Amino acid sequence: MAVLAACQSPEVARQELRTAPVPPAPLATELVPDSLQLTPVAPLAAVPDSLRQAVRALHARLGPAAATLRPAVLERACVGYLNLRRAGRVRRAGVLAVADMDLPSSEKRLWVIDLRKAEVLQHSPVAHGRGSGHLRARRFSNTIKSACTALGFYATQDTYQGKHGLSRRLRGLDAGRNDNALRRYVVLHAADYVSRRHLQRHGQAGNSRGCPALPPDQYRAIIAAVPEGSCLLLSGPGLESKWLEGAAAAERLAVRGWL
User: Which residue, among 212, 10, 205, has the nearest Cα to 129 in the 3D structure?
Assistant: First the structure.
């Protein structure tokens, strides 16, 4: 069209521009459904074969309850857990909780795992912060009042009775990435917007202010399954952590196993 206009007189070209149909405006962002295409997670570099095989064996033994737990996400969770145990930053042996926040909130994306028995203790939906997105979490932040989920490793702390009932505090263990968790009041707590009824009605969980909020019918069991000093990983696109060092984790596994 631009070439033809250049061959015409200026008046004709202006006439055609005035009468040319206006292309439709793009849809508003909120009307475009979230993509369900997950972000690829590459295996960690420099993980010894011994550790990689141990994680594969663990994943296989976890059975159907871990069918949607991506192996590369489990690998990151296990490597971080072993390094945090080695550094004395998580005291509870054999308990690992991992949430894959790249999965849509309509799915069960939180697992609490007994590493010694290779059992899934709890499996449930979990909410992400409203600042992170709607169905899918796409933005992550450690900033106070961002209402975003912050990725990284956490240690569970004490419980208390708050406005959501029984809640468990979380301490972020990745400096500059989730270490504002206590100041932001990021805790495990129950929320009606993660209930089975809400998911059936709306097709997804609601959003928190940054807390990994839990279903009302499971929150007590989940909070009990991650006693003080347990390891929790909130995984998602762009996860970076100094605890993801494969060689050191493999050394810990060789000496102490999953303890």
Answer: 212
Q: Are 54 and 81 in contact (CB under 8 A)?
A: no
Cα distance between residue 63 and residue 183, in whole Å = 38
Nearest CA to 73 out of 205, 251, 237, 258 is that of 237
Helix (H, G, I), strand (E, B) or coil at 120: strand
- Give, in order, the Cα–Cα distances in Å from 238 to each of 78, 139, 181, 207: 18, 9, 18, 20
Question: For residue 24, is pLDDT > 90?
Answer: no
Angle subtended at Cα 175 by Cα 44 and Cα 157, rounded to the nearest 5 degrees: 95
The pLDDT confidence band at residue 36, using thresholds 50, 70 and 90, is: confident
Render pLDDT for 57-84 as a digit per residue (tens, 0 to 9).
999 999 999 999 999 999 999 999 999 9
How many C-beta neighbours within 10 Å does residue 143 have? 12
Instruction: Give the burial string for 22-47 (b: 16+ CB within 10 Å, else e).
Output: eeeeeeeeeeeeeeeeeeebeebeeb
Of all residues in the chain, the percent with pLDDT exceeding 70 is: 87
